[in-house]
Design brief:
Helix content is 31%, strand content 19%. By secondary structure, it is of the alpha/beta class.
């Protein structure tokens, strides 16, 4: 039987090589400095950290309340609204603090126009500490930009193409699940130069206070994340992976949506994702990357698998 520590867990994502398939989703580790404060955390469990969504100028975000926990602890609705200090401030204040990190650092860029996306990409990717850029065309809780671009294939293509022209570093595109056919956006992103696809962002939702008869979130709507959306995310990954294969495209997929356990992550890998992102799980368990990766290693050892790539896309569909 293969030793758990002797199993290869490194992954390649279109020019971006990670020591682990575990990616920390955008917004959950802020600018990465939160990670540094967790002394008990085993750092080698994480392959990459995606920084908080960044726009060209500073944004205050949406009015409060911004977060609502859903029934049964099955997830959270968030409507932060891309609060951030602006691209230049991120470069000057936060990126220097990540100098000693072993993990890959991925910038997450957003904007209200293709030109703004490109400008943010240019500013952030010029810094040596940024290893790749994730284009956020799927944020559901901003009034301009975000999901508006991801839901329109032509607009998505324009944004991705602009970002592609702004950097030579690996380009990831984070797709929205809030569309009838996610394959259309996936194709637009790939044709425009995406090196990898993140599937997918949060699911649009809302919550109502029956006593005040008003929406609970200050923004009315927000993005649902957590285990409640995992079956949806898994379906979207399946659709994208099968489509890419049918079209003869080798673009890798990073799965994102409701992963809490090693079993959850393995389901996405078997379906065809090359790596996976943890998000909401981190708010309840900061050791989730370590716990999930240990579970994956144990599973692979039990299956006598020597490298994690051997199980990617092995789902048998009738």
């Amino acid at each position: 039987m293969t030793s758990e520590r002797g199993i290869g867990i490194g992954v390649k994502l279109g020019g971006l090589e990670l020591a682990s398939p575990v990616v920390v989703a955008s917004g959950t580790y802020g600018w990465g400095t939160e990670f540094e404060a967790i002394e008990a955390f085993r750092s080698d469990a994480i392959g990459a950290i995606v920084l908080k969504g960044t726009t060209l100028s500073a944004r205050e975000g949406n009015r409060t309340p911004r977060i609502v926990e859903t029934a049964g602890g099955a997830g959270i609705l968030n409507a932060i609204g891309l609060q951030n200090p602006g691209a230049e401030a991120v470069v000057e204040t936060y990126l220097p603090k990540l100098k000693g990190f072993k993990q890959k650092i991925i910038a997450n860029v957003a904007g209200e126009s293709a030109a703004e996306y490109a400008a943010v990409t240019r500013v952030l990717s010029a810094h040596a500490r940024i290893d790749a850029v994730e284009v956020n065309v799927s944020c559901p809780n901003v009034k301009r930009g975000g999901m508006q671009f991801g839901a329109d294939a032509r607009a998505c293509g324009e944004v991705v193409r602009a970002c592609r022209e702004a950097t030579e570093k690996p380009l990831l595109v984070k797709l929205t699940p809030n569309v009838t056919d996610i394959r259309i956006g996936a194709r637009a992103a790939v044709d425009a130069g995406a090196d990898a696809l993140t599937v997918a962002n949060t699911v649009l939702g809302t919550a109502v206070d029956i006593h005040t008869r008003r929406p609970i979130l200050g923004n009315v709507s927000g993005g649902l994340s957590g285990p409640a959306i995992m079956p949806i995310a898994l379906q979207k990954v399946l659709e994208v992976v099968r489509y890419l294969k049918e079209e003869g495209l080798s673009t890798p997929v990073i799965a994102s949506g409701g992963i809490l356990t090693a079993e959850d992550a393995l389901a996405f890998l078997i379906t065809g994702a090359s790596a996976f992102a943890l998000g909401t799980a981190l708010f309840a368990d900061f050791r989730a990357p370590e716990r999930v990766l240990d579970g994956i290693r144990a599973y692979l050892a039990g299956q006598d698998v020597k490298d994690i790539s051997e199980i990617v896309g092995t789902l048998e569909v009738p």
